[in-house]
Amino acid sequence: MISPICWFAAFLVALVALCYSIHLERHNYQHKLFGFEINSNRRIVAFGILALGAFCLFAPVTWAQCFSSDLGEGWEPGAFNFISWVITNFFAVGWTTTIQTGLTDVTSTVYSAIPLGGSIAGQVFNLLYSLLTLAYIIALPVEIGLFAFNAVATRLSGSVIKRHLKYADHAIIFESVDANTELLARDIVNNIKDGTLNNANGNGDIALIFCLGSDEDSERQRVLRNLCQGYVRYVFTDSEAADVLTTITSLRDAVKHLLAVDVVATSEETEHNVSATIDMLEATHKDPHAGCAPKITLHCTHKNPDDAQIFDAIKADDEPTCLHLLSRVQDEIYDVLEEAPLYSVLEPIDISVNPNPKPQNLTVLVFGAGDFGMQATRTSFWMGRMPGVRLNIVVVDPNAQSILEREAARYPEMFGESCNGMPTIRFVEAEAPSVTTDRLIAGGTVTTLHYDARNKCVSSKTDSALIPDDARLYAFVTMGDCGQNLSYSLMLQRQIFNRFIDQGSPDYTKQQPVICPHIESEEILGALKSLDKTQTTGKDAAKIMHPFGARKAFYTYSNIINDKRERLAVQLNAVYELCSNGSIKNDFDATLAVEEAVKSYNGKESNKSSSRASAAHITYRFWALGFSDADVERGSFEQAWKEKLQGKVKLVSNNDNIANAILSSVVPDAATKTEFDANEQKNRDEFNLVCRLGDMEHDRWLAYCRATGMTELGHGTVEQEREQRMRAAAVDAFLGKPNKSGAEGVRKSDILMRHAYMTPDNDVLGARGFLLGKKDVYAYDRIIVALSARIAKGSIVK
Questions:
Q1: Whole-number Å distance between alpha carbons of 713 and 694
Q2: What is the pTM of this model?
Q3: Read out DSSP for 557-579?
Q4: CB 570 within 8 Å of CB 598
Q5: Angle at 172 between CA 555 and CA 160, to 5 degrees
Q6: Of 613, 612, 496, 493, which is closest to residue 547 (Cα–Cα)?
Q7: What percentage of the chain carries pLDDT values higher than 90?
């Protein structure tokens, strides 16, 4: 006789197993069981748990049958026969007989075996046990069917992918199917229709692979099928993107034409994108030959600025997969500042003709301190570093106090910056529109908040003429929904017009203000464009109103997969690589192979972000020397740029190689501080423009570092770092080891060195570089300046 405790234990284990197996089937995300991650093998684990539950459920029934009934000829009670009968029960109880017969057998066995008799408790338990048995009778064949179907579907999916990729040159994998996927796929197909994405343009034959998630949208699938049909190879698969990558790498010999694979994770759930991208990185690591053709690039939209550090921590040392992190908020601010640069509201200057241009007040107004508003503030903070420009940023928000406290805690050096006692960034606590904002635009007195870096608190002050009369205005409107942003942008436009009238000038475009409203709605965007055409000429309208944020404009092939800014950043990073290997010393027109350039660029995600920022600022250097956008487009621009940088200094060798001259003037390691200073003075005399633009680039980089949360270290810490490196060299010499206090030591103290270089004082900067054993702390900034025209042209990487 089996104890009632055994029956209850078997019942509970079977119930938990059934519930957990259903839980695994319902959720399509990573799950941990006893510390082990369950992802692609989730269905196998679910079936195993269900089988374990079935064994626990049927074992007591089988045991009771073995020892209380006639087993028939050839069957004797025993361990082997017991196991055989458990397996037999899997089929005989529920599958080879009818459900009714099977339940009758189980019910009668349980009723006779449990010593509860005909009590209510016994009857209830008998009923529950029978119902659980019924659930297993249904669940087991269903699970086996799903398991078999999944195995067949996986093989079919691999075969279908192989068939579609057999003659494809370029595969684009969509990690999920949603609204963003539809926008991007539509743009790709439209480009194929227009002939801009085809073999004639060097893009090859494209194949699209759509990975269906757990929340399948049949209507969107239908739309995508109709969109792609007849124009591009396409396939839908239930496999995850990581599994598709594994399939593609395993089919390497069968898809010899395939040169490039781009995977896009553009879901609105950015945490899911990051998680899926991590899975894909791990999938490419499993195959030691994943670095071979095709070239794999992962495009991931994210929000958290610390994601770059996470990916740096998990990437392999020699990462075969390229990673392209995109922040929609950051990229859209970059885009609008590229369309309408901050200098577009300023008077043109040329520091080669006038080294000390007339000071200009640039006031950047940010209405709304949400994600887009604060990103606009941080980007304008380092973008606005231009010769003779006094930057003034005013942020207007009804929750200014709490927002400033939060942001100052993250970026203390940025919000604590001041010039001549005036904070660079100030907040106004007000609604927009309101009487306070009216007074602000009119140049009246308003109360402002700023971060006091010395006392580490938010201070309040009443400022008169927060926007001076000679201010050049550039405004972002990111307060709320599209309609609200549009309404206030038009109101702000009228208020600026009224201000010009009050100053006695009826010319609306006297100072060419720029207003950038955040508008996602295509309908409202179309209405604004129509309004521009009716109120003023298209040319004037384009100078004033620059809406941004349209989802359709962001999810495009040229913005996600073929990112122009990313290509420019690769070119810029290649200059550093050429400086390191000495190629620029030998040839001004030195180039870097694309494989080496991509490998160098793919090293650290934090360096990628810095390279993108520097690339976005290139046009500001051209503006500082008086070049317009039309000048940059001319074929002779590179030569004109070199001639202007060279100035009166004539180089008789090296084919007028300015970059070579700068690197050749770098002092050796054994030089004294006096020799270092004398060499620096010589450089500033001979290459004045290059040095000034190098200072401008360093000032921009300094502001960029502050906008990412870096802080400056003290002098003593730098000297201690110098001493530590010297001691390490002495130990290495004593032990007979190679000297590791040079380049390797610098790499290990990379963060410390970045902090050490955070000073606007060139004398202090040079001294710190010398103490750290740097040959010339200014050299790379100046080389970047000297080669800016080549970088913009895209001729650094061949």
A1: 22
A2: 0.77
A3: HHHHTS-HHHHHHHHHHHHHHHH
A4: yes
A5: 140
A6: 493
A7: 36
